[in-house]
Amino acid sequence: MATTRKVIITCAVTGAIHTPSMSEHLPVSPSEIAEAALGAAEAGAAIVHLHARDPEDGRPSQDPAHFEPILEQLKAHTDAVVNITTGGSPHMTVEERMRPAAVFKPELASLNMGSMNFGLYPMLERFKEFRYDWEREALEKSRDLVFKNTFADIETILSIGAENGTRFEFECYDIAHLNNLAHVVSRGLVQGPLFVQSVFGLLGGIGAHPEDLMHMRRTADRLLGDSYEWSILGAGRNQIPLATIGAAQGSHVRVGLEDSLWIGPGELAKTNADQVSRIRTVLEALNLEIATPDEAREILHLKG
Ligand code: KMH
Ligand code: ZN
What we know:
This protein is α/β, with parallel strands linked by helices. It has a single domain, classed as Aldolase class I (TIM Barrel, Alpha-Beta Barrel), CATH 3.20.20. It is built from eleven helices and 16 strands. The protein has helices spanning 30-43, 64-77, 94-104, 123-126, 133-141, 151-164, 175-186, 210-224, 239-248, 272-285, 293-300; strands spanning 6-7, 9-12, 47-50, 52-53, 60-61, 81-84, 108-112, 116-117, 146-147, 167-172, 194-200, 228-234, 252-255, 262-264, 267-268, 289-290. It has an eight-stranded parallel β-barrel, surrounded by eight helices. The protein is globular, with a radius of gyration of 18 Å. The two termini are 32 Å apart. The structure holds (5S)-5-amino-3-OXO-hexanoic acid and zinc ion. Zinc ion binds at residues 12, 15, 49, 51, 85, 87, 110, 258.
């Protein structure tokens, strides 16, 4: 079989959901995050999706000062596409969440396409020992937490993209988020190719059954036609299975410790690169080619 289609691997290296007590391998300091991103890029990730943390206690941070050393390291050592979060943590205000993307004007930034419950609290049952009080508090509060992404918030974040030439990874956690994306397209606020990151298996969003994936796919096809590039993010144990099903049907894939701490049942991933290598093996077994950073730029029409 000919190998033609290029698949973009995104690696989300630390995020804001998992906490340092959950895995000793979660990158926390700027140098750990940069090193993890470089390892992921070397293993085949064309895009690295970045959050930062306060090195004191691993708390999620949108302070540009915590991003700067990470970005400097990446600039010096890789041509991977840098994608800066505007999701930050669901506990932060939108103004706080936008700061690093507004300051650093990356090629790509995330944009969360709707408000939703963000149920992290079941993790409390699995991880009982927390090194820092903020970890337990964040999980407890998530029982009553709305991840707020109103239409006004979405338009505000889109405006920093329009000013800086930043394009977006549209994070869609449920069917309604595709409707919201189609709505902003119809208002002329964004143009294709749209990079649609469909997120499966987070409590508060769509499930992680293959039927959920098909429903997202069919709905995106109906609403967005051929103006989008599809990517799959399965949370936790769904990471590799859903990426595999999606890739076999034309999607790009996202892995990384932001989305899953695991490399196998009961086995923590030691590095982000391990997860990139795992999905790369799957993609190659499917006779798919891995996109380089420049190929990803071309596919997604990034400014470079
Ligand atoms: N944590 C992921 C499920 C963002 O950074 O904007 C979604 C995410 C959000 O990556
Ligand atoms: Zn993120």
